[in-house]
Write a structure and sequence with these properties.
Layout lengths: L7 E7 L6 E8 L5 E8 L5 E9 L3 E7 L5
Antiparallel strand pairs: 1-2, 2-5, 3-4
C-alpha cells in the first residue's frame, strides 16, 4: 500500500511566478530516510509529472524544470 506523510511542518514552492524552474521544499516530522512520490496534476486532474525522490532526515529539496509543461 501507499503510506502518506500526514504531518508536514512546512511546504514551499518558489519562485512564483517562474518561467524556467520551480523548487519544492518540505519538512516532515518523519526523520528516517524514506521514498516519496512527487505528483503534479493539471487543473483537470491529469497527471503531468511524477517522480520518486528520497526524503532525507525529514527534508526534501527538488528542482523542477517547468519548460517541458508549456
Amino acid at each position: 500500500g501507499t503510506n502518506e506523510i500526514l504531518s508536514l511542518n512546512e511546504v514551499r514552492i518558489y519562485p512564483n511566478p517562474s518561467d524556467d524552474y520551480i523548487f519544492l521544499d518540505f519538512n516532515s516530522s518523519v526523520q528516517e530516510n524514506s521514498n516519496v512520490t512527487i505528483s503534479l496534476r493539471d487543473i483537470n486532474g491529469r497527471l503531468i509529472f511524477e517522480s520518486e525522490e528520497v526524503l532525507s532526515k525529514g527534508k526534501l529539496h527538488h528542482m523542477l524544470d517547468i519548460n517541458k509543461f508549456t
